[in-house]
Write a structure and sequence with these properties.
CATH class of the largest domain: Mainly Alpha
Number of strands: 0
Helix content: over 70%
Mean pLDDT: 84
Strand content: under 5%
Length: about 475
C-alpha cells in the first residue's frame, strides 16, 4: 500500500493513517533539528579537548551546513528510486551512525569528516519529512493542510529553544560527546515508528528515476559554493575577501549553468525548476527565501545579544529565549484558522509586520532595559516568526501534482537555506563593523538591519493571490 494511496481527502480531519505517518516523521526528524542547534554551544569545549584551534573547530559547524545543503537535490531522486519509506529509514540510519561516529571522534579532522556525513543525512531528512507529509494528505482542505504543516514544523519551532538548553545541561553534566549520543534513542524510536507506521511505496520505473548527473554536478557545487561564501562573510566581516568572492562567483556561475540546463531538460532535471511557472510555488519560494533570512538572522543575533550585551551565560541566554519558542508554537496552532479566514497574503504580511514590530525593542534597548519587557517582545516576535512560514508552506503545494511534490519541496528548501545564509551574513557583517567601539550600539544597528530585512521580506508576500487558501488549492495551474 502506498503512502499516497490513502491520502486525506478534502475533509476537516486527518485520516488515522496520515496521523500515524506524521507522528513517525516528527519523531524521526526531531533529532536532526535538535542536533543542528545543540552542538554550537560546545565548540569551545570541543576545541580544548581535541587540542584544536577556533578556526579549525568552526568547520564542525560549516562542514555540517555545507553537507546539509548539498544533500537537498538528492532527496527527490532517492525517493523516486528507492521509495519514500526506504529512503526515510536509510537517511535516519545514516544520520544516527555518524552521530555515534562524532561522539567517538579522536581529533578535529575526524570530527569534521563525521560531522559532514551526519549533515548529509540531515540534509536528506528535512525535505523527505516535508514531502512525505504533504503527499500523505493529498489534496486536503485548508484546515488539514494547516494541521499538517503545523505538526511537522513544531520541531523547527522548538529546536532553537530546546536545543541550546538541553545542550547546556548535557554539556555541564556529561561532556560534549554525549551531545551526539542524545540522537541515538530518539532515532531508534523514529526508526521503529517508521517501520510500523509509514506505509511502503513502490519506487518509480528505472526510466523515470534516471539520475541527472550533469544537473547534480552543476547544482550541488553551486549550492555549496554559495553557502560557503556567505558563511565566510559572517566570519570575515565583509564581502570583499577572496574566500567570499571566489566561492560566491563560482556558485552563481554554476547555478546559472544549472538553470540553463534544467530549462532544457524539463521534468527530467535533478530539480524541476519549471514548476516555478506556478504562481503559488513561485510566490511561496520567494517568501520562504526572505523568511529564511529573517528567521535565521534573528536566531543568530538574539543569543549573542543576551550574552554580550546583557552578560548572560550560554545556558541563561537559551532560557531567556524560551518565550519566543512558546509564541512560535502558539502561532502554529492558530495560523491555519487565520489563513483560512483572511488568506495567505494577509496572514504572511501580518506575520512579517508583527515580527518587525517586536524586534524594535531590541534596536532601542540599552543594557539596563527591563528583561520582562524584552521577554514580552520575544513572545510577540515568536508569534510572528511562527506564523510567517505557515501560509507559504501551505500555498507552495496548492497547484502541484502528487508526483511533483518532491521537486517542489527541493525548490522551497534550497531557497530557504540560501536565504538563511544570506540573512546571517548580512547581520554578521553589520555587527562586526558597528560593534568595534560600542557593543550596545553595534547590536542596536544590527537589529535595525534585521528589521529592514523583515520589511523587504514583505515584497514577495504581496505576490500571493487574494483568495483564501481553499480557493488557491482549487485554482487552475499557471
Amino acid at each position: 500500500m502506498s503512502t499516497a494511496s490513502t491520502p486525506t481527502s478534502a475533509t476537516e480531519h486527518l485520516h488515522p493513517a496520515t496521523t500515524r505517518t506524521l507522528a513517525a516523521l516528527i519523531v524521526g526528524g526531531a533529532a536532526a533539528i535538535l542536533d543542528s542547534t545543540i552542538v554550537t554551544i560546545a565548540l569551545d569545549h570541543v576545541s580544548t579537548d581535541l587540542h584544536s584551534t577556533p578556526t579549525t573547530i568552526q568547520w564542525v559547524v560549516t562542514a555540517y551546513l555545507l553537507a546539509l545543503v548539498a544533500a537537498i537535490p538528492l532527496s527527490g531522486w532517492a525517493q523516486s528510486t528507492f521509495g519514500g519509506k526506504r529512503s526515510w529509514m536509510a537517511t535516519l540510519t545514516i544520520f544516527v551512525i555518524f552521530s555515534v561516529a562524532c561522539a567517538c571522534a579522536w581529533n578535529d579532522t575526524s570530527l569534521i569528516v563525521f560531522r559532514a556525513l551526519q549533515g548529509f543525512g540531515a540534509g536528506m531528512i528535512f525535505p523527505l519529512m516535508q514531502t512525505l507529509a504533504v503527499q500523505a494528505i493529498g489534496k486536503a482542505s485548508t484546515k488539514v493542510m494547516a494541521t499538517t504543516i503545523a505538526a511537522i514544523s513544531v520541531p523547527l519551532a522548538l529546536g532553537p529553544v530546546i536545543g541550546p538548553v538541553l545542550g547546556g545541561i548535557v554539556l555541564n553534566a556529561a561532556g560534549w560527546r554525549w551531545l551526539f549520543l542524545i540522537n541515538v534513542p530518539l532515532i531508534g524510536v523514529g526508526l521503529v515508528m517508521a517501520w510500523r507506521l509509514i506505509a511502503p511505496d513502490a519506487p518509480r520505473s528505472p526510466q523515470s528515476t534516471r539520475v541527472d548527473v550533469i544537473g547534480l554536478a552543476l547544482l550541488i557545487p553551486s549550492l555549496v559554493c554559495i553557502v560557503l561564501g556567505l558563511s565566510n562573510v559572517a566570519s570575515d566581516g565583509g564581502f570583499g575577501q577572496a574566500d567570499v568572492l571566489v566561492p560566491l562567483a563560482g556558485g552563481l556561475a554554476l547555478i546559472g549553468a544549472f538553470i540553463t540546463w534544467a530549462v532544457r531538460r524539463g521534468v527530467r532535471a535533478a530539480v524541476n525548476i519549471s514548476l516555478l511557472r506556478l504562481r503559488s510555488l513561485a510566490a511561496s519560494s520567494g517568501t520562504l527565501f526572505t523568511a529564511g533570512a529573517t528567521m535565521f538572522a534573528g536566531m543568530f543575533l538574539l543569543p549573542l545579544y543576551w550574552q554580550q550585551v546583557r552578560g548572560d551565560s550560554i545556558l541563561s541566554a537559551a532560557l531567556v529565549l524560551v518565550p519566543q519558542g512558546v509564541g512560535a508554537l502558539l502561532a502554529r496552532i492558530v495560523a491555519g484558522r487565520l489563513a483560512a479566514r483572511f488568506g495567505a497574503r494577509a496572514l504572511t504580511i501580518g506575520a512579517f509586520l508583527l515580527t518587525a514590530l517586536a524586534t524594535i525593542p531590541f534596536a532601542v534597548a540599552d543594557p539596563d532595559a527591563s528583561g520582562w519587557w524584552l521577554g514580552c517582545a520575544l513572545f510577540v516576535r515568536g508569534l510572528g516568526v511562527g506564523a510567517v512560514i505557515m501560509a507559504p508552506m501551505m500555498v507552495a503545494y496548492a497547484d502541484v501534482e502528487h508526483e511533483e511534490m518532491a521537486h517542489a519541496t527541493m525548490v522551497t528548501r534550497i531557497v530557504q537555506q540560501i536565504g538563511a545564509s544570506l540573512g546571517i551574513a548580512v547581520v554578521a557583517v553589520v555587527l562586526q563593523n558597528s560593534a568595534a567601539t560600542d557593543v550596545t550600539a553595534g547590536y542596536q544597528t544590527a537589529f535595525w538591519w534585521l528589521i529592514g530585512i523583515t520589511a523587504v521580506a514583505l515584497i514577495p508576500a504581496i505576490a500571493f493571490r487574494r483568495e483564501s487558501l481553499d480557493d488557491e488549492a482549487s485554482a487552475t495551474k499557471g
